[in-house]
Write a structure and sequence with these properties.
- It is built from 12 helices and no strands.
- It has one domain.
- It is mainly α.
- It starts with a helix and ends with a helix.
- The protein is globular.
- α6 packs antiparallel against α7 (115-126).
Length: 228
């Protein structure tokens, strides 16, 4: 038999849709604690989201082969993965040092699988004021790359290696499940292997030379081809 307290607790449970709507309006706790700075996080995400939708629209109009469930599904997975990275950037604010980042960076020393790795992470802890802004910008890059479908092969490789470091560093943390990191590594590895940016992304527009003012066969084009 359910008690009144149980019903009250259940009524307070959140759901992904409500959380996402709060996120879009700067209402989740990681944004609220930033004060007025939360509006920067809201504006940046909206800019990337609108850019993502515009990229999908251009692909849809200019490349009929993109109009398939296959490409839509890959795009949706990219968008969800980008959301994960963007949420991760929130607790790396304010710069240059946030309490959340300081705690988890220290945890990679405490729970590391290997002494040599722990020693390296300790150097990062010592220079955290330099490390945190770099990590923040890297995760913003991952977010933008996955949302826009730009240089996704490069991002997939970098994100997999980035997560491998977390797997090693937090492997012995009793509150963490290592297979979570394995799943993230596999996901981004597949993004790289399948060239996921060529599904409704900028990578497809560049590969098929569908951007009129950006048709090149020079060194830059070759670099972008490798990265995408």
């Amino acid at each position: 038999m359910k008690t009144h307290a149980t019903v009250k607790d259940n009524a307070m449970n959140d759901n992904p849709i409500h959380t996402f709507l709060q996120f879009l309006t700067g209402g989740i706790p990681d944004q609220v604690h930033l004060g007025d700075g939360r509006w920067f996080t809201v504006a940046l995400y909206w800019i990337l989201l609108l850019g993502s939708f515009l990229t999908v629209y251009v692909n849809w109009r200019r490349d009929p082969s993109q109009r398939s469930l296959h490409h839509i599904s890959i795009y949706a997975m990219r968008l969800l993965a980008a959301g994960m990275w963007y949420l991760g950037t929130l607790w790396k604010l304010p710069l240059p040092v946030s309490a959340g980042f300081k705690y988890w960076l220290g945890a990679t020393v405490k729970y590391s699988s290997f002494p040599a790795h722990a020693a390296i992470m300790q150097v990062f802890v010592t220079h955290i004021a330099l490390v945190q802004p770099v990590i923040y910008l890297l995760e913003i890059f991952f977010t933008a790359s996955l949302m826009l479908g730009f240089m996704v092969r490069l991002t997939g490789i970098l994100a997999a290696l980035f997560t491998l470091n977390l797997l090693i560093g937090l492997y012995n943390d009793p509150t963490e499940w290592p297979w979570t990191y394995v799943g993230i590594i596999c996901t981004h590895g597949m993004f790289a292997a399948s060239q996921a940016g060529r599904s409704l992304g900028i990578d497809n527009l560049l590969a098929k030379q569908l951007i009129p003012r950006f048709r090149s066969t020079g060194p830059l084009a070759r670099v972008l081809a490798l990265a995408s």
